[in-house]
Structures are given as C-alpha cells and as structure tokens.
C-alpha cells in the first residue's frame, strides 16, 4: 500500500504542482492517475521514489515514511517502466531488463534467466532480447514483425 497524506509540492520557481493530495493506493490493485496536462501526475509519481521531495505532507510505502528510507534501496524496490532514451544503449534488451536485479546482487545468470522469463511472459522471443535498443525498429517501420509486438518491447525494457 502506498499512501499520501496531505502532500504538497511547490517548486523553487513558485509553481504548485501538487496541492494537498491525500490518497491510498491499495496493495494488489491498480491505481491510475488521470488528469489534464500539468495537473501533477508525474510529480506525484516522482515523489514516491524521491526523485522529487515533497514540500510538506507524508508519503508511506508499505507503512514506512519514505523520507526515513534509504533512497537507493527505496528505488530498487519500485518497478519502473524505462523506455527509449531511458534504456542503456550499450546493453542488450535482456541486460536492460536485468539491470535492477543485477544491482540487487542477484548474479548475472539468475538475473538473465528472470529477464528471459519476463520477455516470454509478454510474448517476445529470445531474439528480441539479444538486440540493442538502436536495433529495435520504430513501431511504425517494422517490416517483418507486427507493429504491436515491437511496441510491447519498448515499454517492457
Ligand atoms: N522541475 C520543475 N520545476 C518547476 N515546475 C515544474 C517542474 N516539474 C514540473 N513542474 C510544473 O509542475 C506542474 C505539474 O507538472 P507535471 O509534470 O507533474 O504534470 P503532469 O500531470 O505529469 O503533466 P503531463 O500530462 O503533461 O505529463 C506543471 O505546471 C509543470 O510545469
Ligand atoms: Mg507527466
């Protein structure tokens, strides 16, 4: 469970991005933030992993105040969709997926095995895992592979 209690974020330039947000995101459920551009969705997410610190209020992950957690450990415990410019260009798709498990000290073999499992779960082949990000065709220019299939690989990296 992730909870926000009267969270407020005001940036140094005076912009209030999040104003008094109180919210519960229940464990095991899917919570979706919907709102107009600039309403504060990204800022809200970035506060959960401490990329942005709230000006006031309290955020808890599994009961722990995130300001009392070690920031690196907190981030490693949170799944994050990395795509396009966020991918490591010198690593294959498989190794991009294995990045956080490696940081957690899993060891290369176990991390790659889990990354392969995840590729398979979303219907992608080992061939996709061996490619580098620049070798992934643009979703609209894929010749031999369906567009939907390539669109899937990008978010899951
Ligand atoms: N680093 C920053 N410094 C100053 N203002 C910022 C900063 N980051 C975001 N903002 C401002 O805070 C407000 C909320 O931005 P945010 O990016 O959280 O909105 P959003 O809901 O994710 O928008 P979008 O739907 O366009 O992605 C906006 O007015 C934005 O310009
Ligand atoms: Mg946004």
Characterization of this structure:
The structure is a single chain. This protein has a four-stranded antiparallel beta sheet with strand order 2-1-3-4, with helices on one face. The protein is built from seven helices and four strands; from the N terminus they run ββαββαααααα. Residues 140-145 have low confidence and may be disordered. The longest helix is centred in the last third of the chain and has 14 residues, at 108-121. It is an alpha+beta fold and 157 residues long. It has two domains: 2-76, P-loop containing nucleotide triphosphate hydrolases (Rossmann fold, 3-Layer(aba) Sandwich); 84-156, no CATH class. Bound molecules: adenosine-5'-triphosphate and magnesium ion. Residues 41-42 line the site of magnesium ion (MG).
Question: Which features characterize this protein?
Answer:
single chain, 157 residues, alpha+beta, Rossmann fold, 2 domains, four-stranded antiparallel sheet, 7 helices, binds adenosine-5'-triphosphate, binds magnesium ion
Determine Rg (CA atoms, Å): 18 Å
The CATH topology of the largest domain is given as Rossmann fold
Query: Biggest β-sheet: count, sense, barrel?
Result: 4 strands, antiparallel
| Mean of pLDDT | 86
- CATH H-level superfamily of the largest domain: P-loop containing nucleotide triphosphate hydrolases
Question: Which regions have little confidence, pLDDT < 50, spanning 5+ residues?
Answer: 140-145
């Amino acid at each position: 469970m992730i909870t926000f209690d009267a969270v407020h974020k005001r940036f140094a330039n005076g912009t209030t991005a999040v104003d008094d947000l109180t919210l519960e995101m229940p464990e095991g459920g899917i919570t979706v933030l919907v709102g107009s551009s600039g309403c504060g969705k990204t800022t809200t997410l970035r506060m959960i992993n401490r990329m942005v610190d709230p000006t006031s209020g309290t955020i808890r992950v599994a009961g722990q105040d995130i300001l009392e957690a070690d920031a690196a450990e907190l981030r490693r415990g949170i799944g994050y969709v990395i795509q396009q410019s966020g991918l490591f260009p010198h690593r294959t798709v498989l190794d991009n997926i294995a990045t956080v498990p490696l940081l957690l000290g899993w060891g290369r073999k176990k991390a790659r095995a889990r990354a392969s499992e995840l590729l398979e779960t979303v219907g992608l082949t080992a061939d996709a895992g061996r490619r580098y990000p620049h070798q992934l065709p643009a979703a609209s220019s894929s010749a031999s592979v369906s567009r939907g299939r390539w669109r899937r690989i990008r978010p899951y990296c």
